[in-house]
Each structure stands twice: as C-alpha cells, then as structure tokens.
Fold this protein.
Amino acid sequence: MSNANVRLVYNLTAGTTDFYWQNAKKISAFYSGVGLNTGYIKGLSYSSWNYTIVSSNQAVITATGSGVPMMKQYFTLDQNDSFLVRAEVSGSNLKANWFGPVVVDTTGGVDIGITNDNRALVVPFDNDGFIRYNAMPMNSSTTGYEVAAFYDNTSRNGLIVGSVTHDTWKTGIYFAGANNKLTQMNVFGGATTPADVAPHGYLSGNLISSPTMFVGFGADWRVTLQNFANANTNFAPRLVWTNGVPFGWNSWGVIQANITYADAIAVSDFYFVNLMPHNFTNHGTVYINLDSYWDNLTAAQLQSFAAHCHVQGEKAGIYFTPFAWFNTPVNATNVFVEGTGNTYHYSDIVLRTSNGTIEASDGALALDPTHPGTKLRINYYINEFTNWGFDYVKADFLSHGSFEGVHYDPTVTTGIQAYNQGMQYTFNAINGRMFLSESIAPLFPYQYAHSRRISCDAETSLISNTEYEMNSVSYGWWLNNVYPFNDPDILVFGNGSTTNEAQSRLISGVVTGLMLGGDDLTVANGQNGATNLLTNAAIDSVARIGQTFTPVEGNSGSAAENIFIRQDTATNWCVAVFNYTSQSTNETVNLARAGLPAGSYLTTNLWDGTGLPVTNSFNVSLNAKQSKLFRLTYIPLPSPVVNHITLSGSKLIFSGTNGPANGSYAVLTSTNLFTSLTNWTKQATNTFDSNGFFNVTNTIAPNSPPLFYSIQLR
C-alpha cells in the first residue's frame, strides 16, 4: 500500500505492518491489540489474514482465528506523508476498554533514522494543575495523551502519532526508548488521566471500533504536527469565527473575587476613553469580561453593565462552569439545582464512581453532563446570560465533564462520550449568541469553542508565569489549527513586576492569540500599566492577526523555547525572542534556521521602532527578564541599471548602479569577437528586464543587419 512518500508493507502471514517513508523504514512490525473484559488479544494471535481493496486509497485487512473475535484493520492513504489506521473487532457481546490500532514491541521498532538530538514530545490531556509539555530525550518512558512526536531536533525529521477522532475514547501514547530508538510504542484508546479515579469505561456490543489514528513522518516534525491537526478537522470541522481575535479585559487578573458593579463600569469607561481610541481595539470593539464572582452583582446590575458596554461599542463577557460545582457533598443534598425548580438537588446530578463515591477535583464536585438536571442548569444560565445581553462566555473547569464514572445516560459509558454530549448541549444552547472560550479543558474535542486557554493560570506578569505559558506555546502552538484562537490567559502589567517582565508578558500574549488585560483600572498603577503596554500601534497590529507563532527549536524539555516565528505576508515575518532568566543575555537568530529565504531584511524592533538591515542572522541583546518582538521585511535586490558599455580590447564591460561588484556588472571576453565590432548601442532601455537580462545591439557596418546579444548577470 503506497501513496507519495508513504509505503506500508503488511505481512499476511504474521499480522504486522512496516511503515516506510521515502523508502526508509520508520516503524517495524506494528500490529493492533484490544483489551477485552475476557483478556488481551494481540493482532498477532490470529491464524489467517486477508485483504480487500476498498478504494484507490483504502485497504482493509481481515484477521480470523479460533476462539477470538474477528479483527479488521482499516488503512487509509490519502496524504503524501501520513496514513490513517483504525481497528475493529466483531463477535458476540464484546466488552473492551483498551484498543490500540498501533502497537510496537520490537527492539528498535521505531527508528527515525537520525541520532543528533532525539526527542519524544509528551503532550498533557488538559491544562489543569500547571502541567507542562515535555520534549524529553527519546531514551525515556512515559505516557502522553492524544498525540506524540518523536523527532531529531537538529535535522527536524520526525514521526507524529495520535488520534483524529475524539467522540468515544481518551487516547494515550505509551513509549519506551533506548539507543535513540523506541522499543515500545502503544497508540491506543482507553487512557486514564491524572484526574480520573475510575478506570476508562467499557464499550459493549457486537462491534467495537478503536479511535482512528494518524501516523505521519516528515522532514520537519513541526509541519507534520500541524498536518496532524489539520487531519482532525476532516472528521470534525473547527468552529468558525469571523469577528477577529478578542481584545479586552478580564476581572480575574487583579480584582478577582472583589469585583463590584462600580469596578466593572469604571473598567468599561477606562477602555472607552484611554485604550480604544489609542490602537487597543479589534474590529472596532473590546470585550469587558466578568469572571468568577460576577454574582457579586445583582441581575439588574449585570444587565445594566452589559448595556453600558454596548453603548460604548464594547462587548460584555461572563463566566460559567457547566460541569463543576464549587461546594461540598454535604450541601449537595440540600441545594436545588438552578433551573430545575424543586426537581433535582445537586446530589442528584453529581458524577459518581461505581461504588457511589462523588467525584471531585480542584475543590469542585464533578457534574454528570448527561443528567437532565445538568442540562436544565446549562439552559438556565445561558438564558440568563443572553437575556442580560452578554456576548462572551468563559467556560471553566470543563475537564470535570470528561471524568470516567457512572453516567445517567446508559448509552454513555466513557468520559469523552459524556463530555461530547455536554459540550454539544452547551453549544446548542448558546446557538451562536456568544463567543465561547474554554479555560481548563481537554485538548480534544475542539469543535465546540472559539478559543481555548493554552496553559493553566498565568494571570500575572512575573517572568515565571510567562515562561510557564510559553512552554505550552512552544509545544502546543499547533492547536491554533483546530481552535480559531489560542488564549494566553490574562495579561497583567501593574502588579509589581519589573518593566521587562511586563513587556515580556505583553509579547507572550501577542505570540499566542487573545489579548485580554487584567489590571485594576480603578487605581493609578493599573491604569499606567495598561496604558503603557496596550497602546503600541505596531505591536497591536501584530496581535490582531490572532495566529500563534511557531517555535524555531524543540529541545527545551519541560521549559519554554525562546525564539518564535510567524510569516504574515510574502515579504513580512515576525520574530519574538524571550529571556526568561534573571541575567542579561545575547541571542542569535539564524534566519535560515527560522525558515526565512536567503536575502536581505530590514529588522524593526516593534517596541521602539528602531531597525537595522540584516542578511544571514542578527543578534538580540536582552536584559534580565526582557523580550523583544521584531518585524522582518524582505529587501528585494534593486533592479540593476546599466549606464555605460565600453569595449576594451577583447573585453566588453557593462557598468552602472544598483548592481553587484561595485557597479561593474559583467565583463565578457572573446579573442576575436568584440574587437571587430563597432557602434555598440543599448536596446530600448538601460535596465534589465524581468528575467534579469540586459539587451544590447551592435551594428557591424552602416548597412549591415545588427547583432543582438542578451546578457544575464548573476
């Protein structure tokens, strides 16, 4: 089975597959396996394998054997550098909670072919608990979630494996490496997360299917990882948003639990008077968002606040936890669920384990997304928000809805099935009336939200917060291919951090996506910080694009990378350079390594407008905790102009301006040709044509036809 750079060789006597990329073997002898309640079955355990060609790019392998359910493997080769694989088992009354379409347990079974700086990227399930991405050495062993990358950072050659379907299973990638190769790699559905207290739920029936897995290899692992993200959208299109990346404010930055109606109105007014007329706006508006503790305001005040924002051309935002309730199990038996009258107590809608234990995390009880009481609660709050006039909702602690447990809906047996049902219900309830921003949430599924916070809390400008958030950008930037925007969390500048730290936090927001300030704008310190940092026209113009930058390197382990790049037009790039340390440093940006074509560029520091021309690289001097953002504009070579042509013996010399070699463009030498010619003239124009040729004409004698010469200078 082959397509472009991909070739799969299936052994019909063993049940294993070899994966070749550009005729180099990358994975040896992988097979599929399923964990049934009766035991684990390897795809190697069958006695007969047959294949069927389904279409021009899909083949199905059917495995049969005595005492085991029939297994089918579906291989789809519709991309140049990757393939998709899914497995299913069929039989009578099957139950499975582990299904791996790609299982490798051969020494050196995964070999990327290069051993300069081999890495294994471990991706977290969600962004809770200040967890980090980790580009760890390949000679390690652990389990990541949803997708993994195995690559050589020096050459950037790399393998990407992960799930492109997220409706039923939580996907895990277990690996064990040695000698810069992998001896084990399981790409499987059935993972449990650090927050799960129950095992992954079982799927039951006569036919059970695994997740569909992406396996891809490429010359640049970053591109292949983005291709993985794009492959997801073929199964579930990402949500569309056409009104630009949100600029604005969120109350959780500094004011937090102390938010009042007067504070909210003061912030709206400050933005209207001091920030919106001075560049900090997008699509003509900003979002003034109330976070948790918005219920400090009365219903009348909330409606008045939203109306006040609208009068000033602003949007109003609010906060909601659809699957989490911050209270105690004791109170759950006494408190009725909003929107249900006296029908349900919270004790009715909480998620429980099989032994009846209420599940909780982060101080909040988990709610069952499939319970009718949970859905009525969602209806109640969404209707309140929209009736009050809110345009934006931040949905937090969504991961609670993905916990494994016993659900009200008997057809829902896994956490991700429940999460999809709850998110789809919430999405339908909003019905396009609000921008939906996910906060603490699984990476996948993605199709219900306009943005997702890329890291856990990072609402101060301390450099440690910036570095933590940028770790998620370093290895999760590609999520911008499935969510319209990545969210860096709230940008606070006037909370006692240094000027350099504040500037670094600003640049981290620009590099990531959303631009929501969070200073207390009722006091001078917060007002000054917001005014100084948010009104730089050049920096705001970069932020308005709303596209996350790409890391130049990928070998920082669990730390953040420090150089990021984004191409905005055919001739313009942006480069951000960070210093997360307490010491000054000098960083060199290699333009070729950053992906810029060879040539000359004008480099402009967007904070102060200073610039200089560069060619192959440029040096960035950074003070402690300082970062800088540059725009690089390609400088085309000027069109050469020939001002004079001379004949000197046997040499024909072109000279002029705007050309190489100090004005001497070309010297053509001939033993007999040029010395016999006279009357050289320029043809039509004294500039080179679009192909770089300069045309000259010579007349040998007054009545002789002219000779034409086209000369290209290189």
